[in-house]
Amino acid sequence: MVFVTGDLHGNFERFKPKYFPEQARMTKQDIMICAGDFGGVWFGDSRDDETLDWLERLPFTLAFVCGNHENYDALARYPVAEWRGGKVHRVRPHVLHLMRGQIFELESYRFFTMGGAKSHDIEDGILEPDAPDFERRLKHNFTPKEAANALQSFFEQYGLFVGANPQALEAISPQKYETDYYVAQFIFENQKNGTKEYDYIVDLVKGYFLSTVVYLQPDNANILTASYRNVSFYYDTPFLIQFLGYQSKQAQNSAMELHQLLKRQSGSFFYFPQTEGEIISILTAYQHSLSSRNSSKTLEGLDILEYGTDSVERLKHTFPARLASPQNAISRVPLPPYPQKADGSVDVESGLISDEAVKELDFRKSVEVSSIDSFPFFLC
Predict the structure, then answer these.
(1) Cβ contacts of residue 50 below 8 Å, gap of 6+?
(2) Class of residue 131 by CB neighbours under 10 A (exposed 0-12, middle 13-18, buried 19+)
């Protein structure tokens, strides 16, 4: 008997008796032909052994022609033998690769084998990075809109890897995820070469995640109609340092633009006393740096304005009122009551916030803005 199937792709579930009961009356003289995309010889090493040994134990002979998804290099390493009038790669005694261009005599019928096919995955077949025409086939003129959509789609799936583990991007398959593969290779190459473009990409990823946090609240699925009437934003030290103009004019403009955007959407804005203390400490360190030529404690925004120690001292006392002004409406609020130890210190190990704090600060609708680095993308 001769049976024909195809497109196994390494999944041999269909050969279990409950799906293929006919095998109960088959012998090794009977043949199951897989017409392409066998996938059982995939890694080309011992990782294939368990599956191939299982296939060898089936009651019939499994013969396959190669498809457009095979490891051709691994198949070529198996010994060539004669079988039923044609040449095969003998993967196992009864698991056979029917080589292309051969004619086999099976059950009084002649079978001509021509494995492989044009791949439907990409326009010109499987794209291998080491192919001599890789660059030609890789070229695709994306419009700005297509490029933006491709990046956004990529960040949704793989954004966390860009900054944390870019090497993992190498595992993205060109056969399954064509556009993502191109984006991943571009990012990985820039990361490997330490280019400025990679730094820009990391900023874009930060901006993407930040915009997702800010905009995609449960009731605000549409960025154009978003409202934050019941959303509280808690600004921390890096953001406020830039908002106040202590770092640079460009950073201040970005921070103020973000704040005004959220303010127009009816958000509420706060910071904690610890943040105020950190800002004062930074200004104090800057005061000390003014009398030390070798100090690295600088604030570009204050350097440009040539602030002296007295001027910086005034800033330490006046910035809270500036934040709380009607124009900015950024208020200082006390920290929620965290669990405390007997000595009065915060009980970090408990990891719990009191019920009173949860009621006072609805953390489900609160956003901490911790970095302005990515806001240029966020504001595009």
Answers:
(1) none
(2) middle
State whether the Cα torsion 210-215-221-225 is positive or negative: negative
Q: Measure the CA–CA gap between 314 and 224, rounded to whole angstroms.
A: 41
- Tokens representing residue 333 in the block: 């609020």
Q: How many residues does the chain have?
A: 380
List beta partners, residue 95. 62, 92
Question: Within its chain, how far is the Cα of 271 from the centroid?
Answer: 31
Q: Domains in the chain, start-ordered, CATH in brackets?
A: 2-113 (no CATH), 134-208 (no CATH), 227-373 (3.40.50)
The separation between the first and the last C-alpha atoms of the chain, rounded to the nearest angstrom, is: 66
Considering just the CA atoms, what is the radius of gyration of the chain in Å? 32
Taking CA 13 as the corner, what is the angle to CA 11 and CA 18, rounded to the nearest 5 degrees?
170
**DSSP string of 9-20?**
TT--GGGSTTT-
Query: Each residue of 179-238: pLDDT tens digit?
Result: 787 788 888 888 888 888 888 888 888 877 776 665 555 455 454 455 677 788 899 999
Torsion of CA 125, 131, 137, 140, to 10 degrees: 120
Q: Which residue has the tokens 């916030």?
A: 353
Say if residues 7 and 39 touch (Cβ distance below 8 Å). Answer: no
Residue bearing the bigger pLDDT, 135 or 259: 259
Distance (Å, whole) CA 12 – CA 23: 14
Least confident of 47-51, 173-177, 184-188, 315-319: 173-177
Instruction: Give the type of residue at 251.
Output: A
> What burial class does residue 296 get, using C-beta atoms within 10 Å of its C-beta: 0-12 exposed, 13-18 middle, 19+ buried?
exposed
| Cα distances (Å, whole numbers) of residue 118 to 35, 68, 123 | 14, 7, 9
Q: What are the structure tokens assigned to 347, written together? A: 């009980």
Instruction: Look at residue 95 and give its three-state secondary structure.
Output: strand
Angstrom distance (rounded) from CA 314 to CA 330: 19
**pLDDT per position as a tens digit, 243-272:** 999 988 888 988 898 898 888 888 899 999
Q: Which of 63, 9, 72 is nearest to 31 (CA)?
A: 63
For 270-320, the DSSP string reads EE-HHHHHHHHHHHHHHHHHTT-TT-----HHHHHTT--HHHHHHHHHHHH
